[in-house]
Design goal:
Distance between the termini: 38 Å
Number of strands: 5
Helix content: 10-25%
Strand content: 25-35%
Structural class: alpha/beta
Shape: globular
Oligomer: single chain
Order of helices and strands: EHEEEHEH
C-alpha cells in the first residue's frame, strides 16, 4: 500500500498531449493549476554550450501526461512560473538536482 487515494492509471489509459504551440499553453496551465501534485522531468543539453538549454519538459498530473517542446516555446514559457511557484502544488522531480538548475535558467 503506497497510501494512494486512487489507483494509478494504466499507461494506455492515460492521455498524452504534446505541447508545441503557444495557443496550447493556457489549457496546460489550467490543468496543471487544478492539480494537487505534478511530476516533472527535464531533458537538457549542454554539450558545446556555455549555458546549455532545456530541450524537453515532461509533466504529469494524476489524470494526464504532457510533453512540452521547450525549444519551440522557449520565449513563451514564463506563464508556467505560476504553477512552479505555487506552494499548494507539490512538485515531484525526477533527477531533481539538475532539473532545478535547468528550471532556473
Amino acid at each position: 500500500d503506497l497510501g494512494l487515494k486512487h489507483e494509478p492509471r494504466e499507461v494506455q489509459d492515460t492521455p498524452l498531449t504534446i505541447i508545441d504551440s503557444p495557443d496550447q499553453l493556457p489549457g496546460l496551465l489550467e490543468k496543471l493549476s487544478e492539480a494537487k501534485e505534478i511530476a516533472v522531468d527535464l531533458e537538457a543539453h549542454s554539450y558545446r554550450s556555455y549555458l546549455g538549454f532545456t530541450c524537453l519538459m515532461q509533466l504529469s498530473t494524476r489524470k494526464e501526461d504532457f510533453i512540452v517542446d521547450t525549444l519551440s516555446l522557449r520565449t513563451e514559457l514564463a506563464p508556467l512560473n505560476s504553477v512552479f511557484t505555487n506552494p499548494d502544488i507539490l512538485k515531484v522531480l525526477h533527477g531533481g538536482v539538475n532539473d532545478v538548475v535547468w528550471l532556473q535558467r
